[in-house]
Amino acid sequence: MGHTTRVIRTVIADSNVLFRRGLQSLIQQSAGLCVVGQAATAEVLLQNVLAVRPDVLVIDGELLASHDIAQFRLALHQAQLSVQILVMAVGESPRTLEAALAVGARGYMLKDSKPGYMVAALVSLASQQDAKYSSGLVPDLKALADQTPETGVGQALTNREKEVVKLLAEGKTVRTVASDLSLSAKTIEAHKLNLMRKLDIHDRASLIAYAAQSGILAAA
């Protein structure tokens, strides 16, 4: 009797029909992968996931952030469904990153990542390995979550966070800031997420404005 290769069953959730179709075509062309459902809204997504019980869910970051994360996780728990979640986003939004952490996603990738990276990420997630193909954004969400304590809006910034704000506001990348401060990129991502929570800031432009108004950008 021949060996049967396990097929990784995937659901795609994105409001953009062209993106869904493109990703479906990519997945269907890959050996060992198949698409068993699609959704354009959070409501249809949940119904789809509970009905077909996929191995991996690929979900748009904005769609995830607009949904009630607690309700989604509760539904998965009640259905005793263990699905690996890959969040795909157009950029490095703290809002979508926080949503990814909250829902328990194992991977976070940019939508313009190389097709081969997307396929490799799906395979590694389905085998319950760390997603290693994240286009340099967040290679390990669990590590970032472990380093990111809960903080409230309005708390004062630490000296280290002020350093991170200043360097990011100067236009430096996370990797460059990490090198300048002799820290890991994951630690800088964690600092960035913390300070954006504290300041209730959700994009780089607002971060630069805060740094300038507070005097951090001008500090030596």
Could you please describe the fold and organization of this structure?
The chain is of the alpha/beta class. The chain has two domains: 8-139, Rossmann fold (3-Layer(aba) Sandwich), CATH 3.40.50.2300; 148-214, Winged helix-like DNA-binding domain superfamily/Winged helix DNA-binding domain (Arc Repressor Mutant, subunit A, Orthogonal Bundle). 50% of the residues lie in helices and 13% in strands. It contains eleven helices and five strands. The protein has a five-stranded parallel beta sheet with strand order 2-1-3-4-5, sandwiched between helices. Helix 5 (94-103) links the parallel strand 4 (84-89) and strand 5. Helix 7 (141-147) packs across helix 10 (185-199), helix 8 crosses helix 10 and helix 9 crosses helix 10. It is elongated, with a radius of gyration of 19 Å. The termini are far apart. The model is unreliable at 133-139 (pLDDT under 50).
Query: Can you count the helices?
Result: 11
* β-sheet strand percentage: 5-15%
User: Per CATH, what is the topology of the largest domain?
Assistant: Rossmann fold
For the biggest β-sheet, the strand order reads 2-1-3-4-5
* H and E order: EHEHEHHEHEHHHHHH
- Rounded to the nearest angstrom, the distance between the terminal CA atoms is 72 Å
**Mean pLDDT level:** 78
Structural class: alpha/beta
Which oligomeric form is depicted? single chain
What's the CATH class of the largest domain, please?
Answer: Alpha Beta
CATH homology group of the largest domain = Response regulator
Helical percentage: 40-55%
Number of domains: 2
Tell me the total number of β-strands.
Answer: 5
The rounded Rg comes to 19 Å
**Do you know the CATH architecture of the largest domain?**
3-Layer(aba) Sandwich
Low-pLDDT stretches: 133-139
